[in-house]
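Cross-posting from the modeling subforum.

Setting up a comparison between two proteins and wanted a second pair of eyes on the formatting. Protein 1 (sequence, then C-alpha cells):
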Amino acid sequence: MDDRSKALEFYEKAYKIYEKAYKICEKALPPNHPDLATSYSNLGQVYSNMGDYSKALEFYEKSHKIYEKVLPSSHPDLATSYSNIGQVYNNMRDYSKALQFYEKAYKIYERALPPNHPNLATFYNNIGQVYNNMGDCSKALEFYEKSHKIKEKALPLNHPDLAISYSNIGSVYENMHDYSKALEFYENVLEITKKALPPNHPYLATSYNKIGLVYNNMGDYSKALEFYEKSHQIREKALSPNHSSLAPTYSNIGQVYNNMGDYSKALEFYEKAHKIDEKVLPPNHPWLATSYSNIGQVYNNMDDYSKALEFYEKSLKIYEKVLRPNHPDLATSYICIGTVHFNMGDYSKALEFYEKSHKIYKKVLPSNHPYLATSYNNIGQVYNNKGDYSKAFEFYEKSLKIREKALPSNHPDLAGSHLSFAACYERMGDYAAALKALQSAFQIQQQAFQEGNPAFASTYSWFGRVYRSMKDYSKALDNLEKCLAIDLKTLPEKHLYQGITYSYIGDVHRLMGNYEKALAFHQKALNIQENVQCSPLQVATT
C-alpha cells in the first residue's frame, strides 16, 4: 500500500472516530458547548485533508458559529477557527476569501500573542502562501520574510522549519524569475536537509527536485536532469516500483526532455508516470487529468494534433466531473485545447476555447493576475493570425498593461509581450516598429537569462526575418546564425526548429545571390523535414 492509500485509510479511520465523538457530544452537550465546536472542527480537518473542501467548510463554519457565541472576540481559538476557514478557501483557490479570513485571524493573533510567537510565524507563512498563489510576489515575500525572521530568532541554524521557510522564499523568487535568488534559497534548504537527515530521506529528494525545477526554468536542461535524477534515485531506492511518489519524478524528467525537444524521451517518461497514476488513483482523480494533459502537450509539440486533442479531451472530461465550473484548472484545460486548434489553423475554434478560459479567469482572479495577461495575449495571437491587427493590438495592450503592473521589469513574460507586438508589426509591414519591439524584448531577456538561453533563439529568429524583409541581408544572416547556434546547442539533432532556421538562412543566401549556399541550407532543411512529422509549409519559406 502506498502513501496515498495509507493516508486515505488513516483519514477514513479518523473520520469514523471523530464522527462517533461528534454524535456523543451532540447528544450529551448543549448546542453551543465548546467541546461540540472542537468536534466539528476535527471533522472539518479530516474532510480538508481528504480534499472534500465543501464538507470541510460546512463543519468549520458550524464550529465557528459556536466559538463566536461563547468566546470573547479576542480569544486565540477564534483566530484558529478563522485560519482554518481561510486555509480551505486557499485550497479552493478562492484567494480573496482566504485573505479575508486570514486577516480576521491576524487581528486577534497580533493582539493576543507576543511579536515573536511561533504561531505568528505560521500565520505569516499562510498569508504569504495566498499572495504567492495570487501571483502577488512582493506581498508574498513580505509575509514569508516576516515568518522567517521569527523562526531565525527562535530556532537553531539547522532546524527543519527554517528549511521550509527558505523553500517558501525561494518559490517566490522562482515565480519572479529571479532564478539566482531562488537557487540561493533552495541551496540553503539542501544544506540544512543534508545535515539533518539521512542521505536517502524523501525530503532530500524534494530538495533536489526544486533545484532541478529552477534549472529547467533557466533553460539549463543538463543541470535540471542531473538534479531530477538525484531526486528520482532516492525515491527509486526507498519505494516500490509502482509507488505513487515516483510518478511526479518521471513527469519532471519527461518535462525536461519535452523542453529539449526530445519528444520520444518525453513520452517515455510521461507514460511511465501515467501508468503509475492509472494503477494507484481513482479514474476521475485530478492528477490523472494532469497526466493526460502532459502527454497531450508532447503530441501537440510533435504536431500530432489528433492525438493531442484526444489526451487533452480526456483531461478535460475529468476536470469537468470533479471541479467546480469556474475552477482555474478548467481554464488551463481550455487553453490547451484552444492551442491545438490554433496550431491546426482553426482560429474560430481556438477563439472559442480561449474565450471560455478567459471568462473563468475574469471571474476568479484579481484584475492584475499574470494568468489574465496570458489569456489576453492568447486571444491577441488568434486575431493576429486572422489578420485582424487592430483587435490583436487591443488584446496585446491589455496583456502588456497587466504584466507591467504585476511583474518585475526583467520578467520573461514582458519580453513575450514585446515579441507579440513585433510579430504583429512584421505582418503589417511596419518593420521599424517591429525592430523597436524586438529590441525591447531582447533587452529584457538579457536581464532575465544567461547568454545562450533557448529564449534568445526565437528573438534572433524574429530579428533575422525582419531584417530580411527590410533587405538588410547581412544583419538578417547574422541574427539567424545566432539563432541556429543556440538551436544546435540546446535541441536534439534534426529538430524541427533547426530545419526552419536552415530554411530561413537558405532563403537569405538566395536573396543575396549565394545560390550554392542557399541550396545547401535548403537541403539541410529538407533532410530534417523527412524525419519530422510536419507540414511542408512549416519548413518552406517564401
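Protein 2 (same layout):
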Amino acid sequence: MPEQEQNFVIMDCSQRGISKLPTSLEFGHPISVINFQSNRIKALEMSTFARVDNIEELDLSANQITQIQNFTFAPFHSLALLRLSHNYLTEVSPGLLDGMRNLRVLEIGHNVIQRLNNTAFRATPNLQELRMQYNPIFELPEQLFK
C-alpha cells in the first residue's frame, strides 16, 4: 500500500530488483510520487504510463535504462520533477519530453549522452533546472533552449 505524506501518495518501489515494468501501469489510488530508483529497469515503452496521470515526481534513477520510447512521459501533464540520472541513456530524443509542460527539474546526469538535439527541450517551457553533469557532451546546439 502506498504511504501518504502531506496529501501526497508516494509509491516507493526502489531497490526491489524490478527489471521490467508492466506494459500499462494502473493504480487503485491517485499517486503523486513514484520511486523506481535503484532497480534493473532497461527500457520504457510508450504505453507504460498511459493510464497514469497527476504524477508530480517520478524517479527512475540508478537503473540500467538504455531506451525510452518517445511520448512515454506524455500523460504526465503535472510532472514537475523527473529523475533519469545514473542510467545508460545516449540521447534526449526530440519527442521524449513531449506533453511535459509543467516539468521544472530534469535530472539526466551520469548517463552516456553525447549530443543533444536542437528541439530536445522545446516541450518543457517551464524547465528551471537541468542537471546533466557527467555526460560526455562536447557541444551544445545554439538553439537548444529557444
